[in-house]
Amino acid sequence: MRRPTAAALLCAAVAASHGAARAAAAPPEKRETNYDEAKIPPYTLPDPLVTRDGKPVRDAKTWEDVRRPEILELYRSQIYGRSPAPPAAMRFEVVESDARALEGTAFRKQIAIHFTEDKAGPTANLLVYLPASAAKQPVPVFLALNFAGNHRVHPDPSIRMNETWNRKEMKRQREDESTRGASAKPWPIETILARGYGIAILYYCDIEPDFVGGMKDGVRPLFFEAGQTEPAPDEWGAIAAWGWGLRRALDYLETDKDVDAKRVIGVGQSRLGKTILWAGAEDTRLQMVIASCSGEMGAALGKRDYGETIDDMIRAFPYQFAGNFQAYAGKWNEMPVDAHLLVSLIAPRPLFLSTGSEDQWSDPKGEFLAAVAADPVYRLLGTSGLGTDTMPALDQPRLGPLGFQVHTGKHDILPTDWPVFLDFADKHLPRSR
Fold this sequence. Notes:
Blueprint: H1 5-10, H2 12-24, H3 60-79, E1 91-100, H4 101-104, E2 106-114, E3 123-131, E4 139-146, E5 164-166, E6 171-173, H5 189-194, E7 198-203, H6 238-253, E8 259-269, H7 271-282, E9 286-292, H8 310-316, H9 339-344, E10 351-356, H10 364-380, E11 402-407, H11 417-428
Parallel strand pairs: 4-7, 4-8, 8-9, 9-10, 10-11
Antiparallel strand pairs: 1-2, 2-3, 3-7, 5-6
């Protein structure tokens, strides 16, 4: 995969300072997890409004022309890795549609996104539900990856059965009818449709299976150069690959006359919350981003030693990141970015961070502190930002352009979250053009 020389020059200093560490990197040893605020060592966050050569950013033009590209390049080269352009052979096949789905309330479409000319090659299956009103006027759409297969998100018997991947056994498995609708709780499709929104969902393992070694059955090898068997140290990991696949679904939505493709909202939870943040950072076509419980290397500060850590991520999920990320094991303060900079890459587009009171592993306070540190960027770009430096009480969401909540409960999208997500979209999604 070709990499831009300008980008390589921009991060030459970072690459040089960590070259030896990459070569010698070993999995960090596991240590006891810290959940005590008093035991968090001091850390320093890079200022989002100071360029790498020390100049202050005082206007939107300097942010867009200088500082934002700097931050984006650091994430590409050091954290998530560089992603390629869409393949020339990619095509969309509408394999099923029904304008009277869900008892006439919805228009269902099922699309195969073929990444190569060969139908047997990697293919992502996209499930789309639009409210019946879409026949008269294009509608905004929530775009999301799911963990379990499209047939599990709703009991609709017309949803095509997915083959899924067993992460523990690291193999593909066939599903039967007993699993239909088994993961429907986080996806209240009828509620979303009734509020005037559509939803488009694809199974993330269609893009790349989620385990060490899963890459060989995913999209990344399609872009290897002759003789290449592994991504280069600054090339994409699985999170970037999943985000790349979601952006290909966005490519499809731009071709669908029933979708208002200028009003697409990206949604993700857990590792897919990390994915949606990175997809939203790279692709400004996503007009709004909602990240649930994205935690470490998502919206939670990485330099803050609380709950899951950078070392935990490197030890358990090395394949999810660029190879260069390994250099920061045990050297968190040397990492040139942190979550507040990832959050700032979404600005000024609306971003909602949702966390859970029982999910201390994902560090809800660390996500809030990242939002506080990114607030100056939102304000520089003309929005009211987060609007507070006091962490909200449980179940009291902040619905500013940089929104935040801690729901009472676990590491999940809860049924009570979706009304909040929909209210946030109603309040901040740009009006139809």
